[in-house]
Amino acid sequence: MPAGSMEELVSLCKRRGFIFQGSEIYGGLQGFYDYGPLGVELKNNIKAAWWRSNVYERDDMEGLDASIIMHRMVLRHSGHEATFSDPMIDNKKNNKRYRLDHLLKDQKPDVQKKVAELMGEDADNFAALVAALNTRPTQASAAFKEAGVRDPFSGEVGEWTEPKPFNMMFKTTIGPVADEESYGYLRPETAQGIFTNFKNVVDSTSRRLPFGIAQIGKAFRNEITPRNFIFRVRELEQMEIEFFCAPGTDEEWHEHWLEKRLKWWEDQGVPRGKIEILDVPREDLAHYSKRTYDLMYDYPTLGHEEIEGIANRSDYDLGSHTKAQGELGLVAKVEENSDSIAKLTIPHPETNKPVVPFVIEPSAGVDRAMLAVLSEAFTKETLDNGNERIVLKLKPHLAPIKVAVIPLARNKEEITSVAKRIKAELQGLGLGRVLYEDSGNIGKAYRRHDEVGTPFCVTVDFDTVGKGEDTALVDTVTVRDRDTLAQERVKISDLGAWIQNKLR
Ligand code: GAP
């Protein structure tokens, strides 16, 4: 059962309506993708599975949907204005711009080695080498020149500038006056909406530690080099939890969430054996992190890359916003006008004294989840007759279409009316999308539904409506199983329960 390459996946996604290039009719916009008729279903199913597992199936979680554009002060005091940047380097020969670490990774090993040597660093410690290039930009530019670092676009040795930090936040003006005071940011992570609503959620739900707030939503990052299909995009979607706990219990909760998240990925068809756990080295940690586990999924063609980060954010964010509110005089203002105080504290479960809680943050990308789920499901099989079929063996709860109902003859009203009735009845069971499929012959319909991962195809034929040879088959339909290809005759009156049972 060979899996597919990235190229085959991209081709299937376009051909079958999962994912399209954004603004395609105007030549496309790099780093932006649109989810088509089946992509939106798969995406919604992934998000629903995450929400069910992390919110509905727990008793210590609340949900939230905060706004995307945020007050500039939020992102100043979260540390993003100062530190949410990647190192950028330009080739003066063709004005192409690259992310420093991506450019270095794209070089041949001997060039990488030479750069490391010139910088006095160990070539095997990539993170330390990139850090050195960042902190010593003049030496970095000279080392790139001497080592003969090539431009991946032209293939020629580039004329490299000094690397400099590039802040990845999208800035936008708010309202009709475009002055220095009227701008905000598109959030680069959904997390800050959770921190800024911490007090609102505590006050409105009477939550006590430990508890979490979950959110799914868009985030925006002006990536220097978006690439690898939907792996690195500029408009992304995140599924994030901020789990608040008493200081001192954070490390235990960190392990708890690592285990929970690996189990969740497994339930979506992404096995543990395909995920490496990276205990992120100190020098690579984000500015807020005490410790982070990155889950590195083995993507086709790309190899192991981050699918989710599980960070111990300590009391960094709530502490920082509390401090800023004090400095800006906002705590006093709120205290005068309301019962609640703006300080982002909560009673300690043992001492009852106000404490800024610690935070464990499992943060997964929806787009990267899509890519992993599709990669795991993509299967090429050789059938008994020697033909090859492509089939998406998606977990049934993720399948964009749960059942396709196919009338064997498109122009026979006695058959199409029964097929339409069955479709409506199955749709009413709340299984997810059920499709009335009369777009081609039965063989083509099966092929299409294999490729989009529909677990069951139900065919209504002449026997179903009493116009065939076998009268024992009246009021029955053929159900074809996507994975086993087995075909079973099922009574229409039993069909709903039969399918519900199989999907379970
Ligand atoms: N709030 C923490 C945070 O945002 P992150 O490691 O920067 O941490 C979390 O991002 C997850 O978001 C990543 O593990 C990845 O799945 C996804 N992600 C981040 N940047 C992305 C991008 N440019 N394109 C697609 N997904 C991205």
UniProtKB/TrEMBL annotation:
One of its GO terms (biological process) is glycyl-tRNA aminoacylation. It is found in: Cytoplasm. Homodimer. The lineage of its organism: Bacteria, Thermotogati, Deinococcota, Deinococci, Deinococcales. HAMAP family: Gly_tRNA_synth_B. NCBIfam families: glyS_dimeric, PRK04173.1. One of its GO terms (molecular function) is ATP binding. The keyword Hydrolase does not apply. Transmembrane segments: none annotated. Substrate binds at residues 99, 189, 236-240, 361-365. Catalyzes the attachment of glycine to tRNA(Gly). GO terms for cellular component: cytoplasm. Keywords: Aminoacyl-tRNA synthetase, ATP-binding, Cytoplasm, Ligase, Nucleotide-binding, Protein biosynthesis. This is Glycine--tRNA ligase. It comes from the Bacteria. PANTHER family: DNA POLYMERASE SUBUNIT GAMMA-2, MITOCHONDRIAL, GLYCYL-TRNA SYNTHETASE/DNA POLYMERASE SUBUNIT GAMMA-2. It is an enzyme of class 6 (ligase). Its EC number is 6.1.1.14. The keyword ATP-binding applies. ATP binds at residues 221-223, 231-236, 306-307, 365-368. Belongs to the class-II aminoacyl-tRNA synthetase family. Pfam families: HGTP_anticodon, tRNA-synt_2b. It catalyses: tRNA(Gly) + glycine + ATP = glycyl-tRNA(Gly) + AMP + diphosphate. PROSITE patterns: AA_TRNA_LIGASE_II. Residues 8-396 form the Aminoacyl-transfer RNA synthetases class-II family profile domain.
